[in-house]
Amino acid sequence: GAGVSQSPSNKVTEKGKDVELRCDPISGHTALYWYRQSLGQGLEFLIYFQGNSAPDKSGLPSDRFSAERTGGSVSTLTIQRTQQEDSAVYLCASSFRGSANYGYTFGSGTRLTVV
Amino acid sequence: GDSVTQMEGPVTLSEEAFLTINCTYTATGYPSLFWYVQYPGEGLQLLLKATKADDKGSNKGFEATYRKETTSFHLEKGSVQVSDSAVYFCALKGTTSGTYKYIFGTGTRLKVLA
Predict the structure, then answer these.
(1) Which chain B residues are Cβ-neighbours of A107 within 8 angstroms?
(2) How many CB atoms lie within 10 A of CB B6?
(3) Coil, strand or helix: which one is A41?
(4) pLDDT per residue over B50-89, tens digit each?
(5) Nearest residue on chain B to A107, judged by CA atoms?
(6) Which residues pair with B44 in a beta bridge?
(7) What is the sign of the dihedral through the CA atoms of A57, B99, A41 and A91?
(8) CB contact under 8 A, B32 and A31
(9) Do B89 and A109 touch (CB under 8 A)?
């Protein structure tokens, strides 16, 4: 597609429920990243996918968070047993290659509110 | 580890005023530096970048110069417009955590009044 598409744009969920956030990167971009933007905070790196390599999961804050990327394209970020501190905007980005010298293209994000 | 510090906002200016948003960084080696902009309801967009000391990045009237001696990358614009109202993020390409991860500042909200 023309840009990075994320869905849903907004999600309100009850504490303890599981949620799935979707990211559809730009066609041909081999690298995909998830970041989290909390109120008053910078962007926090979560996970990185590059082609068929094993993903870098070093930024995932707990084992309740997981992500997968199917067929080298669409990615799903899953948060199990959501907590109120998970409330944030979850941003997905893609780039042509993994090197950060290629600028990221970000999606508009999914605003997650846990009540 | 590597880090980026931005001036806190919000910054409120009148149209045609001069803009400076301060950004300093801590990193080993020679990181690349970036400014991203987030307009209301949109994703982050790359505004400009500089990959080595003394480089000047520029785009849409915005400029930033990579100053290694002061570890700074301040964003400037000579005459802001209402349409520049957005959140601006300073970022560096991490030198200690691989080449693919950006480290972002907390963002500075700019509001330009007509």
Answers:
(1) 43
(2) 24
(3) coil
(4) 988 999 999 999 999 999 999 999 999 999 999 999 999 9
(5) B43
(6) B38
(7) negative
(8) no
(9) no
